[in-house]
Design a protein that fits this description.
By secondary structure, this protein is mainly alpha-helical. Helix content is about 70%, strand content about 5%.
């Protein structure tokens, strides 16, 4: 893995995020707010998501075992392109979360801190994805843990941004469903060994039929998690709290739902785990309620 390529991708994304802030604030640059009928900020954000995906491709295909994995292929004449779309989710959603979360704050120090956290998180995602591709890698365990933690950070940024927008439940709930389903599926495939480790798609760890069945279960659980969080969002929209508090509440729900479902998927769900998550849930709700009342 060539770290300089990763750093280059992260720097480009950071510059793009800074540009979105300048466009939204009408800063020193005299740029149009709309281009071909589409807000320029959306266009820049879409380009940044593509850059994040390209960064993933560079990371994944730099691994020495890449030739063993059956990646989706696109043939263009005599040229054959290989893609690893299942690895795009976390970097792309992290980039999107930062782009949506940054405009919430007007304080320059806070904005700068968010940019720094995003840069560090993106760099760690690319590095951790590389080391999580092989279960025999000495950093496989810590890489998987790091990806899980960054998934929670991404969820918080997106949930906070969605809640800050104060859209009707008919709009915000489906968006929360989509975000939760994508992040949940990414987490489930990682925790169950599908897509990460050994040969990437269950080859060598699962029989093809078993891998397909497990993948279907992960998808069903991810959609179920999305529906649960969408229903929570519908009720939460009636609670007049800040974007940070709303994001924290949804993050708490995401942590509990995804954690329990992940254990169920891997066969590790038991009474002790349910009690632990219940205690965390109750403690978290008490903290969120206290924050919501003190911030009024």
């Amino acid at each position: 893995m060539r770290l300089e390529r990763t750093i280059t991708v992260v720097v480009v994304i950071m510059l793009g995020l800074g540009l979105t802030l300048l466009v939204e604030s009408g800063g020193v640059l005299s740029l149009p707010g709309v281009l071909l009928g589409v807000p320029l900020v959306w266009i820049i954000t879409a380009v940044l998501l593509a850059v994040a995906a390209l960064g993933v491709e560079g990371t994944v295909h730099a691994h020495p075992h890449t030739q063993l994995w059956p990646f989706p292929r696109l043939r263009v004449g005599k040229l054959t392109l290989e893609f690893a779309p299942r690895y795009w989710t976390l970097p792309a959603l992290l980039t999107l979360g930062a782009a949506l979360f940054l405009p919430i704050f007007a304080d320059f120090a806070v904005v700068a801190l968010i940019l720094v956290i995003t840069a560090v998180a993106l760099t760690l995602v690319f590095i951790a994805q590389y080391h999580s591709l092989d279960a025999q890698d000495q950093y496989f365990g810590i890489a998987t843990l790091g990806l899980n933690l960054i998934a929670y950070l991404t969820a918080f940024a997106l949930f906070g941004s969605i809640y800050y927008a104060k859209q009707r439940s008919l709009i915000s709930s489906p968006i929360v469903l989509a975000v939760t389903a994508l992040l949940s599926y990414e987490t489930f495939t990682r925790s169950s060994g599908l897509g990460y480790g050994v040969l990437g798609t269950g080859v060598g760890r699962f029989a093809p039929d078993a891998a397909a069945a497990l993948r279907r279960r992960a998808l069903i659980l991810a959609l179920s998690a999305g529906l649960l969080l969408a229903e929570v969002t519908w009720a939460l929209n009636y609670w007049p709290v800040s974007a940070l508090v709303g994001g924290m509440f949804l993050l708490l729900g995401f942590y509990i739902v995804v954690g329990l479902m992940s254990l169920y998927l891997t066969g590790g769900l038991n009474g002790r785990a349910v009690v632990e998550f219940t205690i965390v849930g109750i403690s978290g709700m008490v903290i969120v309620f206290l924050i919501s009342f003190t911030s009024r």
